[in-house]
Specification:
The complex is a heterotetramer, with 2 copies of chain A and 2 copies of chain B. In chain A, 36% of the residues lie in helices and 19% in strands. By secondary structure, chain A is of the alpha/beta class. Chain B has one domain: 3-Layer(aba) Sandwich (Rossmann fold). In chain B, the strands form 2 sheets. A 6-stranded parallel beta sheet of chain B has the order 2-1-3-4-8-7, sandwiched between helices. In chain B, strands 5-6 form a two-stranded antiparallel sheet. In chain B, helix 1 packs antiparallel against helix 2 (45-52) and helix 1 (5-30) runs antiparallel to helix 11. The radius of gyration of chain B is 19 Å and the shape is globular. The termini of chain B are far apart. The model of chain B has no long low-confidence stretch (mean pLDDT 97). The chains are: A alpha/beta, B alpha/beta. Chains in contact: A-B, A-C, A-D, B-C, B-D, C-D. Chains C and D meet through helix 3, helix 4 and helix 5 of C and helix 5 and helix 6 of D. The structure holds thiamine diphosphate (TPP) (2 copies) and magnesium ion (MG) (2 copies). One thiamine diphosphate sits between chains B (39, 67-68, 116-118, 146-149, 176, 178-180, 244) and C (29, 68, 70, 92, 96, 99). One thiamine diphosphate sits between chains D (39, 67-68, 116-118, 146-149, 176, 178-180, 244) and A (29, 68, 70, 92, 96, 99).
Chain lengths: 334, 323, 334, 323
């Protein structure tokens, strides 16, 4: 165990997966960087340096910089997965799925259903999401709910370095298409991470904190916000259970429902937009399946139904805050 | 001739089976046996067969196909019963009846799949080619696509990528002039070979009704790919014998257009004339092949028609590999 | 008033809009059909004949057949809208948004927010959705919830010819990007439609039926199914209110909440997938805002979390049925 | 010279303002005044100005731009204060501070917008060109894009569409060799002019640091478009003076690369030599213009820095036009 950043944990997972299985390779824009450029060969290691150093160990055959042709290279990764490799492809920002969405929606997600049980697409797509650093409307979206809507796709959003490493190794070993969401404001977050390989199964939530007054379900970066909120509330005598589903699809419904059954109250926190998002998804499941145990309305804390603004004051205002979570809990705990 | 008699017989037989299969499906469609949006391949048989004869019927050599896939499936060695069952939505279809005509696939023989999103399968051919290069299998990937598809971003991106990374891909552009009801001259600038040249990809135009022309161009292109010399493009001018899809009224076609195509540009008639002319195969033998093919196709379809549908629980299976 | 099909009502709306405003033009694959082909000039009128006859009246300058380049022509329509025209563009099947999703997600939806109040994108995007006719996994999806998730986009899904005409005219006159969903199994549905021009405002639900025992909210084709279910239930003495929101974004929350307040019970019916879909969206809003009035769990009737199968028996099974709706209502009304 | 002294002075002044603006922004960035992902235009001024000088600063003639847009904005006649305020996220910015550096736009002068999805704006130029043709305004649309963008499907599709429908579009390919840290020779097959030729689009390569070369090619292409003769492409070889974006360590560049570019391929130095050589403008006058430009840029940025941010309620406005 040592304390490392999210970035290092992810890098570690990729390195271990590549050492362990020569069928694993990486593909994406500037994931090494410097290809054919006159300067350094491993110039970037990805725009957030997550893949830094890997081209040194594995070479350009296995760490492949690409043209700005997301459809071609995501589709390539799918075809490579279909023919025996285990690609880990990077779509630099989740926003860029706009230009290659078809390869997820109509291809990776549906091959097995359309073509039969012989068809496998063991591809992991890493991408970044979330607000941070004044990246503005086209580089700050969350969007995982769009992928959760699509049958055939698995969606992962780790909230800490330990989970990030274990879930990424699980994703690479998984035989289905997985989209792996990394929050760009979390790369420098630190946590204890074992040095060896380990996996965390999909569909198993982590209970981050126990408390009898309300259940807070939060995703990705919002898990930390929810924990802070719970801490503040605890000092006022309000005790919350905080649930981190870790995978968005599949979703660990039973843990969520069990917690709500015990607390009778639910707050869902999601950095995405409110309409048809993960907050409504969880709220609806609970309203259908744990209604009898609910003592109060569910509360959803989300970003607003607006694009992400650039100006720093608006950007800060845009992100769901600890104070918003505290207020939501208070509004249903009397 | 560059081919043995056995090779010629096999090629003819495959073309004839495709034709017979499509004619039979057309009859079924007219009799109101619906199988969704069926896009018949008839007319372009020389393309599928002239290309696939140079490929191994395994996952080493891959074909990535389109909405108009029946011919590719059969030419690549896919099982006739499996495709017939799939088209009729039967449990024993290639995809368990859940894919249908626009999604026939047979990974045992390297038919990666029919894909009804125009252009979407070109990148998958890149992927198969990438695997071949990565694992040094000597494999080749073929991306079939229409003239309409040639205007889709995915296809351009794939051409660039294939050349820049010297992947063993062959692009086969099956140009029947139409994208549904719209003619290519309205929507399509430049020409296929000039476009390929823009990427530095060697390209050639051939008469897609002429089996020998296609086969020889394909042989060269596939050899180039196997040798590590990167992608090629073959532009095949092909006639379309049925409508864009079964059920379409074909009002965009001139009257007499199809019958003229059928009389002037039938790859089977052309092939017969060529092999009879050179004395390779005689008429009687060709006729025998015809009747065998027709019987095989009819039998596959008849069997499929009366086969059981998938069980109700199949609705929920194969969404994921792991659950 | 005369009784016409959904197809005719839509055609009528397009014709009236084009007569009324020379800035309105149509763009899409085969929307006339026959361009440069040796046969008939107005060969198709779109794959479902909705635009049939319009090229005859308005010519090829205003009814523009396109190459299979959805990104280029949807983007063109956006640029044309930005510079003073009012394009009505057809994306033949909603499934095909995969290849041009970026133009919606990052462009049409965000221009005004990013560029300021001078920026307008008055574009209407017609598309078809839904299961029917053995169209299989890549031509049968519903997907409107994905667009509802995106701020800056309006989403419309009419359930009958009258609404279809009024809503389409409203969409074309609207200064925001609107995606207009036409169910391909409904084109032959008939209903009374006035011959002149009229509009139906966005964000105003229609109450199709009144009943005190439960509220059924349904979308698009499912509205008719819900009405049939309500009919069946009524003969057993269970009386339902049926709400057709008509527009998915904006959503008429207040009508939905009012109805639920009166009935105390909610069933939401949606042909889309269950995760992060319109059923969860409505259920969550109600669980948050009308919780105190709820007497029973909410129920969601949706398609399963699977792609759409081809085989006719499975296809039929896939679609939410009247029986499913009846059962859902019964399960919460004792 | 084909240009009047006034035209030359205006062109130089614009180039110099862009340069001064970018140098000043760079200093701000180094001092930790963050404005997100700023992609500085410095080095390519001759491109923006050589093209836009032939366009009307109205919505008749449109520029569709990229993530590297500051130069296009200024050259198209956009307000310097509005862009400065926008880059610092101020209420008086061109987009009210909600767009930022990657989304500057000024529809009053026909600057349709910076767009940070690579390739996404090319189709918008088609749209503006379509409007011009539909309304017979005589307008022209210019699509700026980088060498990296030239591999994006949207751009290929747009080239085909523009040619097939003879739209008045000019594609300006600003080729600095890099797509972020990746060099073009690794990812890009063929050449820009050959690719254009594949669509039948007339194309020419010019030295993008040579104002007169760009201006003359642009003049021809824009005239062709206005005459109804369809699209053209101009491939401009341009140096990149700063990093891909502010904050990037530029490790992909050889040591000395940038200083060599700055000494050998500075469009401003080249312009000065050219106009001084032909006696059109003298050194003293050019120096005066330099100091005016520097002052204007510095003032715009200083004003912006201390201007108020948008009010909190701006978070919720301009999502829709109607509510
Ligand atoms: C992305 C996408 N756009 C549109 C369609 C509808 N469509 C199906 S087939 C077709 C025409 C294809 O033309 P071409 O590639 O020439 O193939 P052909 O049918 O002539 O064999 C179109 C437009 C589609 N399936 N996918
Ligand atoms: C669709 C998409 N993919 C990737 C990116 C990330 N990105 C931003 S700038 C850039 C390089 C662009 O290269 P080029 O077009 O040559 O423009 P330059 O930056 O050199 O001016 C990339 C890959 C993006 N913004 N959009
Ligand atoms: Mg065709
Ligand atoms: Mg570049």
């Amino acid at each position: 165990m040592s304390i490392i950043t999210m970035r290092a944990a992810l890098n570690d997972a990729l390195r271990l997966a590549m050492r362990n299985d020569s069928d694993v390779f990486l593909l994406g824009e500037d994931i090494a960087g410097g290809a054919n450029a006159p300067g350094e060969d491993d110039a970037w290691g990805g725009v957030f340096q997550v893949t830094k150093g890997l081209v040194g160990e594995f070479g350009r055959e296995r760490v492949v910089d690409t043209p700005i042709s997301e459809t071609a290279f995501l589709g390539l990764a799918i075809g490579a997965a279909n023919t025996g490799l285990r690609p880990v492809v990077e779509i630099m920002f989740v926003d860029f799925f706009g230009v290659c969405f078809d390869q997820v929606l109509n291809n990776a997600a549906k091959f097995r259903y359309m073509y039969g049980a012989h068809a496998k697409t063991p591809i992991t797509i890493r991408t970044t999401y979330g607000v941070g650093g004044l990246a503005a409307a086209q580089h700050s979206q969350t969007l995982y709910s769009i992928f959760a809507h699509i049958p055939g796709i698995k969606v992962v959003a780790p909230s800490n370095p330990y989970d990030a490493k274990g879930l990424l190794l699980e994703a690479i070993g998984d035989d289905d298409p997985v989209i792996f969401f990394e929050h760009k404001a979390m790369y420098d977050d630190t946590g204890e991470v074992p040095s060896g390989a380990y996996t965390i199964p999909f569909g198993e939530a982590a209970i981050k904190r126990d408390g009898g007054d309300a259940t807070i379900v939060a995703f990705g970066r919002m898990v930390g916000f929810a924990e802070t909120a719970a801490e503040q509330l605890a000092s006022d005598g309000i005790h919350c259970t905080v649930v981190d589903p870790r995978t968005i699809s599949p979703l660990d419904e039973s843990t969520i429902l069990n917690c709500v059954r015990q607390t009778g109250r639910l707050v869902v926190v999601d950095e995405g937009h409110p309409r048809c998002g993960m907050a409504s998804d969880v709220a609806a499941i609970v309203a259908e399946k744990a209604f009898a145990d609910l003592k109060a309305p569910v509360r959803m804390v989300t970003a607003p139904h607006t694009p992400v603004p650039f100006a720093s004051n608006l950007e800060a205002e845009y992100i769901p805050s600890v104070a918003d979570i505290v207020a939501a809990v208070r509004s249903i705990v009397d | 001739m560059d081919y043995t008699k056995e090779e010629l017989i096999e090629a003819y037989m495959q073309m004839r089976i495709i034709r017979a299969f499509e004619e039979e499906l057309h009859r079924e469609a007219e009799e109101n046996n619906s199988f969704g949006f069926a896009h018949l391949y008839a007319g372009a048989e020389a393309c599928a067969v002239g290309v696939c004869m140079h490929l191994e019927p395994t996952m080493r050599d891959i074909v990535a196909s389109t909405h108009r896939a029946h011919g590719h499936f059969i030419a690549k060695g896919g099982d006739l019963n499996a495709i017939a069952h799939e088209i009729f939505g039967r449990a024993d279809g290639s995809g368990g009846g859940k894919g249908g005509t626009m999604h026939v696939a047979d990974w045992n023989v390297g038919m990666l799949g029919a894909n009804s999103i125009i252009g979407a399968s070109a990148p998958h051919a890149l992927g198969a080619a990438f695997t071949a290069k990565y694992k040094r299998t000597g494999g080749v990937a073929v991306a079939f696509g229409g003239d309409g598809a040639s205007n889709q971003g995915a296809v351009f991106e794939s051409m660039n990528f294939a050349k820049a990374y010297a992947l063993p891909v062959v692009f086969i552009l099956e140009d029947n002039g139409y994208a549904e009801s719209t003619y290519k001259s309205y929507t399509t600038a430049g020409s296929p070979c000039e476009r390929a040249a823009g990427f530095g990809i060697p390209a050639v135009s051939v008469d897609g009704a002429d089996f020998f022309a296609v086969a020889s161009a394909a042989k060269d292109a596939i050899a180039r790919a196997r040798n590590g010399d990167g992608p090629s493009l073959i532009h095949c001018d092909v006639p379309l014998f049925f409508a864009h899809f079964e059920g379409d009224q074909e009002t965009y076609r001139a009257s007499g257009e199809v019958s003229k195509l059928r009389s002037d540009r039938d790859c089977l008639a052309l092939f017969r004339a060529q092999v009879i002319g050179t004395g390779n195969i005689d008429t009687a033998e060709l006729d025998r092949l015809d009747s065998t093919a027709t019987q095989q196709a009819a039998k596959a379809i008849a069997t499929a028609k009366s086969a059981p549908q998938p069980p109700p629980q199949a609705l929920f299976t194969n969404v994921y590999a792991s659950y």
